[in-house]
Automatic annotation (TrEMBL):
PANTHER family: NUCLEAR HORMONE RECEPTOR FAMILY
InterPro entries to which the protein is assigned, alphabetical: C.elegans_Orphan_NR, NHR-like_dom_sf, Nucl_hrmn_rcpt_lig-bd
Annotated transmembrane regions: none
Keywords from the named record: Receptor, Transcription, Transcription regulation
Name of this protein: NR LBD domain-containing protein
PROSITE patterns (alphabetical): NR_LBD
Naturally occurring in which organism (per UniProt): Ancylostoma caninum (Dog hookworm)
Length: 113
């Protein structure tokens, strides 16, 4: 599957990546029924990770310099960075949605989106 970013993206790289991040977060922020769960099964975790891997790949493709790299280079960068990006995004979204409860009560966000 070939990814093509939106035509109406800003030209400035940081604005472009911010736009892509907001696009990625939009479904999570609009989710009406956030459920607090105590644990995840292995299958549930794999489903979450798969969804996040695709989302991270899409976000990276909004970076013109990354998008222009050969596939092998993209894969090297992606493999080295997706876990860090996923953890950081999960933590920041949990704090944004739950505030200090995310820290004090160890409440975290996992989304199917």
């Amino acid at each position: 599957m070939e990814f093509e970013p939106d035509d109406c993206l800003p030209n400035e790289p940081l604005e472009r990546m911010n736009h892509a991040l907001l696009r990625h977060r939009r479904p999570q922020l609009a989710e009406p029924d956030l459920k607090i769960i105590g644990s995840l099964s292995f299958v549930q975790a794999m489903t979450f990770w798969e969804t996040q891997i695709y989302a991270i790949g899409e976000w990276l493709m909004h970076c013109q310099e990354f998008a222009q790299l050969p596939l092998e280079e993209k894969m090297k960068l992606f493999k080295a960075s997706w876990v860090i990006w996923q953890r950081f995004e999960r933590i920041t979204m949990s704090i944004e949605l739950f505030g200090w409860r995310a820290v004090n009560e160890k409440v975290g966000l996992h989304s199917n989106l």
